Amino acid sequence: MQSQDVAPRPTPAASSDGPVVDVEQAEAALVEHYPRLVRLAYLVLPPSLGRNRRVLTAHALTQRALPRGRASASVIPAQSTGRDGDPGYSFVRLRVLRTALEAGLPLTFKAWPKRSQLPPLLPQVWGLRLFPRSGGADELALDQRLSALSAPARAAYVLRGLERLADGDVHKVLTAAGVTDPDAALAEADRCAEPEGRDDAEVVSARRPEGSSTVATSASAAAPRRRSANERVPAQNALLDSPEFDPCSLQARPTDLMRRRQHGKAALVAAAALAVCGALLGLPGDGWGPDGAAAPAYAQNPSAQAALDPAKLTKVAPTAWQSSARTDFSVWPARGDRTDDRALLRRALAVWARPGESVRVSATPATPTGGPAGPPQLLYAGTVDTAHVVLLYDGLRVVRYAEPKDATSGAALDFGRADGATRAEAGAVVLARTDGNVRYLTAPWVTEAAERDLMQPRSGAMDLGLTDGVTAPLASPGGQNGACTSWNVLQVTDGSGTRLMTDLGELVPAHLTTGKPGYTKEASGAQALRTWAPMACSLQAVRSQGVRSVNAWEYARQSLPAASGSAAWVCTRAETWRGGGARVLAQFHTPGGRYGAVAAKAENSPACGPRDPHVLAGVLWRSEAGAWYLLAAGSRDTASITVSGGVSGSAKGYLLAAEAKQGAQARLKGTLHDGRTIDGLH
């Protein structure tokens, strides 16, 4: 093969005057003309690569022709229908041509090889060899003549015959592709394109310039000139469109079957050796086998090893809570029928420190999920329903590890934040959830546990019983299929009273209270239960938000216009374990309604809390007669309320009722008795 004369790629500045081609335009051109571009690359690539590699390389070069961003490309006219004046096609064609020319360059030790000079990573077809369909004698003869040309000459011949470009346009394309001597390439392509038995001295027809008449001349009357491929060898040009040179219409044959069989045996032996090595790693000792679903060890130091040693777990005495000044998780004793199961405890600690990829991990928002700093405290280890469960506590978090009774696959690890928990908030922990039911492990000071439907304040509580602190299963709160028809809560009783706790999808249930901020009380009384009943379903809005406690405060009652009864205004505030992210809902409950309507809500707002025990909210309400009103209410220390915007009006005191239109938008502003102004919740 003749040496190729290809210069380095031109700098971007060389084409900075051309139109800008973006990725979408180039992609559209590539997709539309993909078969033609692949054929062009296949014809320009050196035949020495072999037909199979030429096919795969042609596809690889064409697919890599997309620019990575916006690129400047000089307009090089494409002379066939559908491509005229398309800078996207010209740009992609130039990139394909340039890389196809580079692919034929010889490898040297002076410079790193270009990507196009190496076998393509993709596409790849294993076990098959692909090549275009065979043509006739004319196609074979043309292929032999093309293989004798240099790469620039092949490119010139293909641009003439396949792209139907005039010699001047071919010269421009070759120059842009990095060919240093396009004239030599065109001259060499002439020798391949010359039909047998013809001579340049024969009569030719001069091209008729646009707007001029046809002129005939002969070699004796005019100077000889170079003729385009379209003028001289249309039959040879047609061969370039034949199946012989179509890398998109392929035949498949198997590769060397004996070599494939030998390689398969070698791969089988390697897999067997790898399996043996894995089995040896899983044997007792320093391997990861005893740790179950834990990932491989990442540290070997005394502190890390002590935190993972089941023998060093902290176990509190059963009566420690009776004499301790603290009443939180730190005085819970270790309970369960597997507190002495070293293997289970070791797996729980190892998975906590380094959970493997198969472990399902969940955590309360803003809760760190790293391993323990030292040996944690054991709260529970036992069999619950169909799983082994371990509960651990490190002063900041309650951690639950669960695995199926018959295997370590499918293990789960849950983190719940519990720093600063008081007696009320450390009253219970979720032990297991199965088939829509939940079991709790209660504090050692809890003497009774019961289930209560928060939406039925007049119904009694159903005793759950306690077995070593574990409750019977109770239905998870909320209805089925998204419908809220009930809200079951846990009612616990100890020496200091009775309190309600609700499961919000986390380890530590949220404590429910009622009353004015700063003067809250337990939600277990009759009046508190009536306040909570229409607001129970609103607890769905704070699921899995790291909620520590939720308080419901009936801050106002308002007589409805048209003698429609009295409505209640209730503010619910959900506090979180992390301190921030508190959620406030102002709800409006009309007489006879089962649910409260959310009038306004806010996040990270001090309203309705101990730091700012004030609230102002409004709602559009329609009477039975069809009249619309804007109703607003503030806390009782509100001196006046003003409304502006779509509704205008004002009222003395903490209640306002103004006539309005359906869909009206209004802004509320209240003035407190001390002169401070507050805005309405949105």
Task: Pick out its properties.
alpha+beta; five-stranded mixed sheet; 682 residues; elongated; 15 helices; 31 strands; ten-stranded mixed sheet
The coarse overall form would be elongated
- Which spans have pLDDT < 50 for at least 5 consecutive residues? 8-17, 71-82, 196-230, 284-288
Output the number of helix runs: 15
* Biggest β-sheet strands, sense, barrel: 10 strands, mixed
Helical percentage = 10-25%
Structural class, by secondary structure, is alpha+beta
Distance between the termini: 79 Å
Proportion of β residues? 25-35%
Secondary structure tally: strands: 31
Average pLDDT number: 83
In words, what does this structure look like?
The strands form eight sheets. Strands 12, 13, 17, 18, 19, 20, 21, 22, 23 and 24 form a ten-stranded mixed sheet that branches. The chain has a five-stranded mixed sheet with strand order 5-9-8-7-6, covered by helices on one side. The protein is elongated and about 105 Å long. Helix 1 (23-32) packs across helix 4, helix 2 (34-44) crosses helix 3 and helix 2 packs parallel to helix 4. With 682 residues, the chain is α+β, with helices and mostly antiparallel strands. A hairpin with a 6-residue loop joins strand 21 and strand 22 (566-576).
